[in-house]
Amino acid sequence: MCLRDQIRQYYDFWFGASQIYEEWAKSHGLTSNTLFVLYTIDEYSGRCTQQIICERLLLPKQTTSSILAELQAQGYIKKEPSSEDRRSKIVSFTEKGRQYAENILKQLYRFEEKALSGMTVGERTDMLENCSKFLQQLQNSIQLKEEK
């Protein structure tokens, strides 16, 4: 298999995984962007900002702002000034939002754990190591291009 075929196979994986997450999120009344915003707020509990969400998920500021405004209107999140930088707001769950996010994220993790349990520990380890290696190689390739 030539490199171009392997790149196509990689895109098939990437687009396929994206579609699966989008469909799963949709079946729970969300977009995948909103799902991953919930995940990020949970993952960065107590220190999550709009900037972290934008950087982590590679979302435009406007998209992130719209998602956060909707979650706030639903009573799921609150924004409070950061003690370190008053211009920055810490995004956190309200009690209602914490319960909502925990429920959604538990279901997400069960779905992902079920998928991963179909692989051996070695296959999972190899997959993650190779994905990390590929990301590093992508980064190296971009840096080489920028230097020229």
From TrEMBL:
- Which Gene3D superfamilies did the record assign? Winged helix-like DNA-binding domain superfamily/Winged helix DNA-binding domain
Question: What is the superkingdom listed in this entry's lineage?
Answer: Bacteria
Q: Which residue range or ranges hold the HTH marR-type domain?
A: 1-136
> Native species of this protein?
Anaerovorax odorimutans
Name of this protein: MarR family winged helix-turn-helix transcriptional regulator
Instruction: Show the InterPro entries listed in the entry.
Output: HTH_MarR-typ, MarR/SlyA-like, WH-like_DNA-bd_sf, WH_DNA-bd_sf
Q: Which PANTHER family does this chain map to?
A: HTH-TYPE TRANSCRIPTIONAL REPRESSOR YETL, TRANSCRIPTIONAL REGULATOR, MARR FAMILY
Checking PROSITE patterns in the record gives: HTH_MARR_2
